[in-house]
Design a protein that fits this description.
The structure is a homodimer. With about 120 residues, chain A is mainly α. The first copy, chain A, is about 55% helix and about 5% strand. Chain A folds into 2 domains: about 60 residues, Orthogonal Bundle (Arc Repressor Mutant, subunit A), CATH 1.10.10.10; about 35 residues. Chain B binds a DNA duplex (30 and 30 nucleotides) through helix 2 and helix 3.
Chain lengths: ~120, ~120
DNA sequence: TAACTGTACTATTTGTGATGGTACACTTAA
DNA sequence: TTAAGTGTACCATCACAAATAGTACAGTTA
């Protein structure tokens, strides 16, 4: 379900956060579905439970999951999260687009690239 | 010429690398133009010369500048760098585009955003 | 009650970024 | 020839974040 890339320079907890955000936004994890427990996921990934705890705390801070003491962590069903992520992506895309246009690419070429994109 | 953003979480040397890459790619720094010396730039930015040295070493590794012992660092005139940067940007853009399309945006909407972009 | 859950600590290790300082080889201009 | 400026290569040190290791406690559930 989650794979850690040790070649990735980003910290482990950040990779875990990203992976779960993607799974939730894509609907692979449904609203109110239970997340793997801190201890079991740590065991599965062969890392420390504290690292998962840190990732879950961050996911909760960002509104992707909610915690219930003694029961577990669960996926939040907040629909606004998708919209927020869309905005983030668009911002980044436009920033990169601005740069690539500044160094000589045309809007036509860029748009052509996107049109040809397979999803 | 170069400004360090201490709110930026990225390391200083990385910011310096990025800034110079942009200046070179945009032609603000011409081929064979002399870079500020390690010591003078460090003085100007109130940081350690070793940090600038690290940034310059990275810029040289990536082919943006070349060093001449005793004389200084100079901008490389390699035209392929612009093409390489374009490819990098496109890759990132397509990656983000793929994500934003997967979570519900349409190609039309995305292309519209780029069309409206002011450069 | 036992086994699971989250949570909160503390201590420690590790790696990277950054600093401070020294030294040496090279180039250039006085 | 000399002095000042260049890059470069070290070393020691500090600061900080990431990650580990371990313990403890409170809540839930079968």
């Amino acid at each position: 379900m989650i794979i850690i890339d040790y070649k990735d320079t980003r910290p482990i907890y950040e990779q875990v956060v990203e992976k779960f955000k993607t799974l939730i936004l894509h609907g692979a994890l449904q609203a109110d579905e239970q997340m793997p427990s801190v201890r079991s996921l740590a065991m599965e990934l062969s890392i420390n439970p504290n690292t998962i705890q840190k990732a879950y705390a961050e996911l909760e801070r960002q509104g992707f999951i909610y915690a219930v003491k003694g029961r577990g962590n669960f996926v939040s069903g907040d629909g606004r999260l998708v919209e927020e992520r869309k905005c983030e992506c668009i911002q980044k895309i436009l920033e990169l687009a601005r740069e690539v246009l500044e160094i000589g690419m045309t809007k036509m070429e860029l748009i052509r690239e996107i049109e040809q994109l397979q999803v």
